[in-house]
């Protein structure tokens, strides 16, 4: 497989709902092997480098049972689907009972064939890996209960809060998986990362799964870091792991000469920790939060990090954990947010349904999506934007933040974001007014950036606009811009 280009594009597919939609009119339903090549090749032509098939692994019968008895989840699903029934709830794809494909999708042989199909098209296949926990009915629960955080029953005979009882062992309670800031995930069982045998078992699982894909999206990757795990379970564990799990995982993959990308879902500003540890890419939730907040000053500071570091961040406007982008940003802000997201250094992340303007956030347990009206304007804009940012200049080119200045009686330039991409004769200039008021300012153009031109042609392919400016004046004095609220320029320079 060829090495990934810089600033690659990744597309998340909710496998359950996606196949259900592709199967419309087919009573038998499609499996992954039935997906036509044109579907995958279309994604490749749109500029995607990696396809994340979210939720491919076998779901837990226990998790399905629990989900169908969860009042809030049931009511949420009922509010989404007019013709909802309990069979529409399938259980969480993150309560994994076995790292084999769920039978509704395909067999392990089909998965191997799919990896080869995508590889032939130049697409990387990304699959889930959940290190923190398993399903409550995973085989380890009965065979190796020592792999999990444990507790004894209370005097009342009940398990402590956040624990569940083994069916064949009344004297032992197992902890549910947990993020320290939220209630436990009651369809999961928490791995004990102070137990060397449990760590080894999870390392073997990672190595096993890595043979079926080109990379793993590592769920809640920071939860298994020693310092995080100790704080989360300080009342239940008395020691630390001798080495960090992720360091061991990278070492194990290297010893097998197996190249497998590790993409970390990570929060709490710990993305640098994950990258320093050797993982290939890490979520940049701060970028998303700043865009939602509309905080231009802090966004500029965030984008001032070294480019080499930013290129290893995963930046998104939505994913299956966050609300839909159009629902968050609205038509007013969505286009400027999309331009910012697509033109900064990073692994650029898009989500199935995002280009159509889907507004409904789907529970991961829900089997099918409701019909939503397609936002034709947003779809057309997305197609133009994807076409442009697929150009080599946005991947192998040099990125540079630009300074702006204004006047003593007008400092609105501080609300302008501006940067360039350059690759030989290919040059792009991006300017965004990411505020709810008009902004004016002068953009400082890098010296000799407009070499070889007396007249600069500023062509905006997203809007179909053309401006002619003196190249010398632009370099000497800068480029004056006057942008309406949430407006942008996306200039190719000719």
TrEMBL record:
InterPro entries, per database record: GH, GH13_cat_dom
Which residue intervals define the domain Glycosyl hydrolase family 13 catalytic in the entry?
12-382
Q: Which residues form the signal peptide?
A: none
Q: Which GO terms describe its biological process?
A: carbohydrate metabolic process
What's one Pfam family the UniProt record gives for this protein? Alpha-amylase
- What is this protein's name? Putative alpha-amylase family protein
């Amino acid at each position: 497989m060829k090495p990934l280009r810089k600033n690659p594009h990744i597309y998340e597919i909710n496998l359950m709902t996606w196949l259900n939609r592709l199967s419309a009119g087919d009573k038998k339903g499609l499996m992954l092997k039935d997906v036509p090549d044109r579907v995958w090749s279309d994604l490749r032509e749109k500029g995607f480098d990696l396809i994340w098939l979210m939720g491919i692994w076998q779901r837990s019968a226990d998790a399905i049972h629990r989900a169908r008895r969860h009042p809030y989840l049931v009511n949420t699903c009922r509010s989404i689907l007019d013709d909802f029934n309990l069979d529409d709830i399938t259980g969480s794809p993150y309560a994994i009972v076995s790292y084999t494909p769920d039978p509704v999708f395909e067999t392990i042989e089909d998965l191997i064939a799919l990896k080869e199909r995508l590889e032939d098209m130049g697409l990387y296949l990304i699959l889930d890996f959940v290190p923190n926990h398993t399903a409550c009915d995973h085989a380890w629960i009965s065979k190796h209960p020592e792999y999990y955080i444990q507790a004894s029953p209370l005097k009342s005979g009940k398990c402590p809060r956040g624990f569940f009882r083994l069916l064949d062992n009344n004297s032992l309670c197992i902890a549910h998986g947990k993020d320290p800031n939220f209630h436990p995930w009651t369809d999961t069982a928490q791995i004990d990362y102070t137990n060397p045998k449990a760590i080894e078992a999870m390392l073997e699982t990672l190595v096993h799964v890595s043979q079926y894909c080109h990379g793993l999206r590592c769920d809640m990757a920071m939860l298994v870091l020693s310092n995080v795990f100790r704080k989360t379970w300080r009342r239940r564990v008395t020691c630390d792991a001798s080495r960090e799990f992720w360091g061991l995982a990278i070492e194990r993959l290297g010893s097998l000469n197996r190249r497998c990308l590790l993409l970390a879902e990570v929060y709490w500003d710990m993305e640098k920790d994950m990258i320093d540890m050797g993982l290939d890419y890490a979520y940049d939730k701060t970028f998303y939060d700043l865009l939602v907040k509309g905080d231009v000053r802090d966004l500029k500071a965030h984008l001032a990090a070294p480019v080499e570091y930013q290129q290893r961040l995963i930046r998104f406007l939505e994913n299956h954990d966050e609300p839909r982008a159009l629902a968050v940003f609205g038509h007013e802000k969505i286009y400027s947010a999309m331009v910012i997201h697509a033109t900064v250094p990073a692994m650029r992340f898009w989500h199935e349904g995002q280009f159509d303007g889907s507004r409904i956030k789907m529970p991961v347990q829900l089997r099918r999506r409701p019909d939503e009206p397609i936002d034709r304007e947003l779809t057309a804009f997305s197609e133009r934007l994807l076409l442009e940012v697929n150009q080599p200049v946005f991947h192998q080119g040099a990125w540079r933040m630009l300074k702006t200045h204004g006047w003593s009686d007008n400092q609105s330039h501080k609300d302008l974001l501006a940067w360039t991409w350059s690759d030989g004769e290919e040059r792009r200039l991006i300017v965004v007014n990411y505020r709810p008021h008009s902004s004016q300012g002068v953009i400082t153009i890098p010296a000799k950036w407009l070499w070889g031109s007396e007249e600069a042609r500023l062509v905006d392919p997203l809007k179909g606009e053309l401006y002619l400016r003196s190249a010398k004046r632009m370099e000497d004095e800068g480029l004056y811009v006057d942008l309406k609220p949430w407006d942008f320029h996306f200039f190719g320079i000719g």
